[in-house]
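hi!! sorry for the late reply, been swamped w classes. u asked for the two structures so here they r. pasted raw, havent cleaned anything up. first the sequence of the first protein and right below it the tokens
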Amino acid sequence: MYDYRKPNPAPQALDVVVIGEALIDIVATPDGSTEHPGGSPANVAYGLARLGINTGLLTAIGDDLRGADLEQHLAGAGVKLLPGSRSLEKTSTAAATITPDGSASYAFDITWDPEPLDVGNTPPKLLHTGSIASSLAPGAAMVKAILQQLRHECTITYDPNIRPDLLGSQAEECGNFEELVLLADVVKLSDEDALWLYPHKDVEQAADHILGLGADLAVITSGSSGSLLATPSSRVYVPAVKTVVADTIGAGDSYMSALILGLLTVGTDGFTPAALEQLGRTAAAAAAITVSRPGANPPTKSELHSHGVSSPEGQRT
């Protein structure tokens, strides 16, 4: 049940607020195990800050060494950890096993129970959420309540980042996903997410269904096959940027961060085919930089520039 304790006040003047899990990825490879900061929403927040966006993160970490490592990591990029984020006894972890093709499978030890946050008086320009935080009790109810509160106050982006091992039935999660789509302006998911949610629909049909629920923009990524960006009136396919893959950890999160960078400029009323193409190419370049090096290590703005990608004109940072 949603916790109706008096919420913590949000800081002033944030461009983006991200709500979701921050955890430690324990990565097992043939050479041994290493630990990296992770969690899809935390990765998105980190990626946004590295791109120069004034970003705050509401999460749930523990008062322990791993929590301190996460806090130091996020602060190093400029992410502001929002009040209520130090709410657990133990920081959550995800054990990631890297396969020969660079992809990762996960086993989670996670609790999602942040303290409430009051963002009504100082809404950001954009609110992003998704992944485990949007589906795992008890914190998922708070996430939904905040989305309902800000539905008409700012742009809302949502990435379900499906983790079947942590979820109920497919039917239950599909219902939860669609309830949150009704509150979002932009929905981004992978082709694997789309297939799990809608096993009898192809990518085009899944995008059409999401748009039919009311989203302004549906984005479906397909790894090395590129991505689809669709609105009710336009759709654009953007190829992936070719690169040598170290691993795919954080690739979708880097794509999401760069997509948000573009949305802060064009808004949700300027989705011409040319604008969609620019959004997709910038996001694809960010993902390519990330997969070329180990762990969730998203690009800086200067690294995007060095790969021939210019920040959208008029970016508000």
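now the second protein. again sequence first, tokens right under
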Amino acid sequence: MHLLPKHFRALVIGSSGTIGSHFVKLLESNPSCLEVRGVHRHSTPAINYQHPETIEVCAKSLANDGPFQLIINTIGVLHSDQWMPEKKLDDLNASQLTDMLNINTIGPALTIRHFSKLLDPQHSVMATLSAKVGSIEDNRLGGWYSYRSSKAALNMIIKTAAIELARTKPNIALIALHPGTVNSRLSQPFRGQQIGRDPLQAVNEMFHVLENVSKEDSGSFLSYAGEKLPW
């Protein structure tokens, strides 16, 4: 049985980014979505993973707007103005590893801690964007040390939290969701415009996966096509 009800309220975290903003557009045009809220670094309330104290503050500020039946966290980083994914072991450095873990692991982990309290205990889904390159079993090319590690750690957070919540809130599903390559700022240095999918197409595909999630899927690592990915 699908967890997302016929009529639902949604929250998009990271709604100023390419994927997040297109999720908001998609949900605003969906007649089943009664309301969609979006939060980001410059929204009110704001959420900024460089300032982790904002995570709890943002969640508490939205408490009276809940419960939500769908929460989607789209925040993540692959590169910055200072660094790109490592090609070899000698490229590893503490600063890049720290930044990746702060944005891709610690921020989302605290988001699950505080925002899962806003989920409807009767039937709801919380999806956090992960990445297939975070799969340890699927790693065949190497490289991208800090990005792979941060997403692998995120996957463990999601799996572990899903096990805990299943004991007290069995009708909530926590999902790690791989969006694939999307034409966005994140993918542009890696031929995103050539090989990436249109953002609206990508969020339509991901939403199709989310609206078919059952409680048995909680703790799963799913692709945008609905495929279960190896940890």
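hope this helps!! also noticed smth abt the second:
The longest helix spans residues 145-168.
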